[in-house]
Batch of 3 targets.
Target 1
Amino acid sequence: MIRALSITRSIHDWLYSSMSENMAYFIEMVLIAIVYLAIFAVAGLFLVLIERRVAAWFQLRIGPNRVGFQGLLQTMADALKLLSKELTGTEKADKFLYNLAPYFVIITALMALAVIPFTQDFQAFDINIGILFLIAISSIGVIGILLGGWSSNNKFALIGAMRSGVQTISYELSIGLSLLTMILITGSLQLSEIVEVQKSGWLIVQGHIPAIIAFMIYMIAGTAETNRAPFDMAEAESELGAGFHTEYSGMKFAYFFLAEFINMFIIAAIATTVFFGAWLSPFGITESIPILGVFWFLAKAMVLVFLMMWFRWTFPRLRVDQLLTLEWKYLLPLNLMNIVIMALIVWLNLTIQF
Amino acid sequence: MDTTTIETNFRSEEYFINMGPQHPATHGVLRLLLTIDGEIIKKVEPDLGYIHRSIEKMCERDTYQQIVHLTDRMDYLSSNINNEAVCLTVENALELEVPDRVKVIRTIIGELTRISSHCLWWGVMGMDVGALTTYFYGFRDRELINDIFEETCGARLTMNYNVPGGLMFDIHPNFVKRTKDFIAHFKTKLPEYDKLLTHNVIFQKRTKGIGILTKEDAISFGASGPVGRASGYSCDVRKHHPYSALDKVKFQEALKTEGDTYARYLVRIQEMWESLSIIEQLIDNIPEGEYRVATNAVIKLPKGEFYQRVETARGELGVYIISDGVKSPYRLKFRSPGFSNLSLLNHIAVGGKIGDLVATMATLDLVIPDIDR
């Protein structure tokens, strides 16, 4: 639970003193859910705006700069527009699954957000299988994409969904194994303990060469996992129109869209936690002010998010078979070898620690 | 369960998919009827006619000056070269000798048109293989050419700058300076194109060995322009049947022998360099003189058949006029490069993946109004 910030502390105390324990627990859960939903919405809209500004910067354009100061409210306006749009769909779609699909995507994104350690104690659930939970949750998201593509009764959507399924299932392995490489150092799956270990040096420094390889594999696989260019097989607008969400409109489309950006943030957040010391400041310069941890965390995550945007606006798209070749013939064997190297380094105590 | 039922349960099935007429990769209203097995293309059947405007029939109604205006709307990316083709045909039929100044200006503007068309193609090529940023880079440089055109004749795309007998106006005083500025600018930007796309590993993987067209096939399908030249078929009309001032300049015909998508890409990049060199040879010594020779207000061609071919950005454009001596042609036929180039799509795309089809189609550089007319 949230403990570090004194206001949440006092709310917590007041709730537990004024009502029964179960009731207080329930209300607290609801409050946290609302807070996270707000973070989710704001972060999603903000990331969309950043993406558009970064894309514009790469493409010799200005980007959205009319609504609000420097276009800050542009995505709000877009969201309002999407909310007020008519929901159209295909007549022969499987209505139940068609309507269910966006929620799969968005709920899994939201669930993954719950274990992200924004700063000390600012983490909704600090469970002892944190990393496992994240990997497990992120692989559920693909069900939403598969359902959406399949149930909308459109061949382009179906091709997109199948591509996405193939891709996500393959790259899950790389994500899992590259994180596993780092867990060899920490010896724990719990995110707060992973951060604790990094007080004597970020894991990317502690694990040096294999850690850097693991990080590179993680970033490639993470980009693929979120279906972003150069791995945007599922959408591939020049090939499939809009891919799996061809038949979605209005807010249902916006769910897919927002979830993509939240997933990007989650991938960056996991990388920040596992490789770059989460909220820890470089060389411990602001250790005494814990609230600044949020700043450090977001700053590191944003650098990685920028990296992913950089990929997207620079590289051409891979073909679907090349995508699988890359994973199964290159990344996976490299990853397995990397784990052995990391195990040797940990066993021989060759990690760098300050 | 015996084996036969297993086989029937898990049979793979070819399915049919409609690519277009509204689809981002068909660049207009081309409709492709695809038969696909999973991701693999089994058959591509182009379905034309969505933007057919009977330009050839309308030509039978119009005077020769008016016909020039219609040709802008065929291959709108090389509109000036289309204009030039009709003007050359009419001038040849009338045995009219245009001044050297006209020839040189026509050639310079023709090559600028080619560069601008290839710029757009390069941007769209990148977009088709998924690199969206190229689109804006291509358009940035294309804008400068369009600005020159706008200053020269008032239009940016459908220029109508040529008339039978010469040009509609003389060039703007700024023309030479701005063209030189553009050449200097574009020489720094073309290497940037290579950095961004040509040398990219993913791009090379996507294009090398894809959509291979042999030289024999290129000839038998009537491929022309960069598509034919990438297969080793030397078919540059500018080289073999020079028109306007092209016999006075030295340039290399961009030839590759691989015949794959990457070769077609490289041929177009090299053509941009060659076009720059052609302009550079001519820009400094545009001869003085008249920009137009007087013709009758109503041009009547002598009885007979006349043919003229030019090299547009897409390949060989032929203009075939049958005249029976009156103010409009009895029959006018355009041999458009896009039509023949599209006809070989099925031949080279079958067996590839959907992504390959899109990349291959991008290097054919189709302009649909050119195919449908």
Target 2
Amino acid sequence: MSTVLVIAFVGIVFIGVLGFLGRRRPAANLTEWTVGGRQVGAVTMWFLQAGEIFTTFTFLGMAGLAFSGGVAAVYALPYVPIAYAVLFFIAKRLWSLGRERGYLTQGDYLEDRFGSRTLGTLSGTLSAVLGVVFVLPYLQLQITGLGLIVKLVTGNAASSTISMVVGFVLVVAFVLWAGLRGVAVTSYFKDAIMLVVLVVLIVAIPVHFSGGIPAMFQRIQQLHPAALTLHAGPNDQVWFFSSMVVSAIGVALMTLPHQWAPLLSARDPQVLRKNYTWMPLYGVCIAFPMIVGFAAILVLSKNTSANGVLLTLTQQVLPPWAVGLIVVAAIATAMVPAAGIMIGISSLVARNIVRTRSDRGQFWVNHGTVVVACALALVLVARSYARTHSPTCCFSHIAEQCSSLPRTCWACCANAWSARCRSWRA
Amino acid sequence: MLRKRLVGKVPILAGLIVAEVVVIWLTFGKIHLFGTWNVGMVGLGVNVVVVVGAGLIERALAQRTAATAVPE
Amino acid sequence: MRPYYLIPAVPALALVLMPVLPFLNSTGLWLGLPRLLVWGAVWVALLTPAMLLTGRLMSRAEAEK
């Protein structure tokens, strides 16, 4: 067993153990489990919401998109911060409504805001069903990402499969035990290791291959000038503009089901406002993996798999133990967001689809859904694996496809805001 | 925040369903009718059109009902 | 609507217009980096002071009430 593989497995188990530390006793009810009893403070909230910025898509997908599409990758830099500028104004009202009316999910909000019993329930259920169906591939993407990371660095398909299964069994276990608090604790680790790793990578890779970042871009300017402009092709200006704007609208209008639990968990609205104010500075870090992707343009052949460029360059530059740490950071970007997604899916099913009458029943449906959703996502991964004999995914493509579906759906739902806005005046 | 209620529940549900069908069709049918526009943006455009159209019909029906209603 | 609500709209607009500004879509570099990347990063970072200023003005307006 190689050093990298050992460190990767230790990392997977460590993230799982951290998740369990989120809570000393299992949560007694769904409010406690889903939104941490609405008592989450500023620091924890920071890491919970930062988790939405840095996923496998950001870490590996951004480097891949910069490698294949050049500056087109920059579309991903502003959309979350723009959305935060909108949420800065509306989050307080959403939070207050959530606390006052007991929301735990997006479906709860829609149901309540639509007012009418039949149509309200229908809209809540419909939105919940669409949310679950279209976010499930996003969960699958995280699992596939984990497998791909291990496959890329070890070249071993069996290790990849084992790591996917072990990793996601642990995620299910700590999510069942600790709920949102487990996600929060693992987020501390994820963001800390990822920032360190990204800083190391944007220094080490350009210095190793080109003598520094400015020198690297000067070489790109001479050898691959097209990578520095938006031009005709799949990632042209229209693609850039429409992807950026629709993604910003999606995040700003709380269209993804897993955005709701962190927002509703805040201790007070000031926590949220402070978060949205400072988060854009953190969001600038998305540029780091893009810079690594640009380095790959000079070093790797065009046929290289875009998803793997960050890890491929890492292996060429760093010693095995350091590659192991980078793999752990990459794995964390798969496991931690997956945990948040599971909470989003399961609470929607329990609250807005199955609708059991007792609190206890709702709690068990919720927990059962966590297991079923993860199993289903693993089956989807296994099916694609069986077809291609390797965990395949193109982060930039799949993430765009998966996220555009729920985002459109929820942006549509967001029209409900205007429908009920009379009662929204604070 | 807007001070007036613009549309009812039916137009919103109609907009949601139609836009979602369009996005699914464009995504899974691999249809490239809109060049490099993000399918989400196309779906959102369709949604707005349906919501506005259904909202206008809803308003017209409500006015007609009010006009034909016999006061007791 | 109070004018200070619009302060974060300035960086947001600068970001949304990014793909259509001709001086950004060029092979030239700023500070050794692609122009789009520099423009994006700077305006994203400026969203923070914009929201801080709006937050302060909102608090002051609330206190005056």
Target 3
Amino acid sequence: MTSAIRADGVTVQYGDVRALEDVSLGVEFGSVTGLIGMNGSGKSTLFKTIMGLTRPVQGTVSINGRTPTQARKEGLLGYVPQSEDVDWTFPVSVRDVVMMGRYAYQGFTRKPTSADRQVVEQALERVGLQTFGSRQIGQLSGGQKKRTFVARGLAQGANVLLLDEPFAGVDKSSESTIVQLLRELADEGHCVLISTHDLHALPQLADEAILLLQSILFQGPVADALRPENLSLAFGLDIRRAEESE
Amino acid sequence: MNLYSLVIEPLHYEFMIRALTTTVLAAIVCALLSCWLILVGWSLMGDAVSHAVLPGVVIAYIAGIPFAAGALVFGFIAVAAIGILRGTSRIKEDAAIGIVFTTLFALGLVLISTTPSHTDLNHIIFGNILGVSTSDLQQVALLAVIAFAVLIAKRRDLTLYAFDPTHAYAIGLSPRALGALLLALLALTTVVALQVVGVILVVAMLIIPGATAHLLTDRFNRMLLIAPIMSALSSVLGIYLSYWLDASSGGLVVLVQGVVFTVVYLFSPSHGLIAKTRQHRRTNDQWKQHSAEAQVP
């Protein structure tokens, strides 16, 4: 079976800064994977590279066996932004946002058809927001906000979902709702990749974890990833290595 | 003085009819565009581009080609220069904008001063709405119709671009192309509006209506109605005031818009300062109730 996301020897450079170094990974359909690393570890860069926003100086990325460009044209990639990247005062409703998932299928003016409206309502129902469709997006709780963007990905027909820090600013009970939703989506065959530095939701949520610090430190079962010796590597607490590099 | 002499009598003059028609056209198109500009966060960019088109307009005048062509070229030159300056030096964006638009504006001033018959061109700077000719009006109407049609046809794409360009990219659209489209519309609209208020004050018509509407509604489609209607009404009032008081028409058009904005800022039922302060307590209660609802998945 083709991997949902595959990276081979990906190196990304921003000027003098090496953001990613020889990153190779495979993420499968039907699974939830947690991408763990501290701020500046390259999580966002890896997301951008998967989406094709950043081009690697070396190596390749493929989505379901396609180049990122092809994958975008086919609408395979659904993206759930970080809360701080969204203008929550923007005058759009939940339904408007989910409809944006349909734009690639629509004509020049993006006039929605009744089929589009139906898909949007189904996506809202799937994430449990059917009664919130006409709310302005700022008038939602943290968890509902995230589910709105997941619904957009579903309306888009994306089968690879990228979530950037989905648990930031989300209370405990909303978190468990999101965990349950993502788990179900994975069980239905979606590939869910989550970047996070929030570790406590991972064991019930993720099948696998990837520890990232410019390069891949670990990819494997969550329980192994969360071992202190692995985490201390990912969060830069390894004293031996620091001494060696001096 | 009675109502007739105040409102109807000015309409006996053809120049007033032309002035009011031009103003309403410009106000509507500017107000539509402003809804996106304020949401994208392009207010400063709008200011820069609207000033930077001046040399383009002057060169177009000298060469005898449509003002819009020169404005488009210099609008893109300005944005490219700002981007290059920011990307290749340690200069931050606000400084880059400040440097580029003032330099281009200065170039425009120099070109005006060295061009014979420069009295006409001074109108570009301060506007000359009461002196609009029939051919001016035709040009404005054509540009306004084009800008209006493109804005309405591509409104959903532009809103997506304003809201979440990354998603636009993820579904295979080109945020860069949408940004360029918005920029081209900004340059075109600047040409429309500079007839009314002049280059210096164009930016007011490109920001205030959208900002006013944003304080009145949470629905973008309603913003697209409220902004043009309010802008057209206040601009017409501004022209009348200028006629009655024999004062700067461009100045009064913008002044009225500013006053309307201030009133809305204070008294808007949903997002006004007073309503917000008064409802502060109630909102707090609603939030408590709301987060209690949110506990139920």
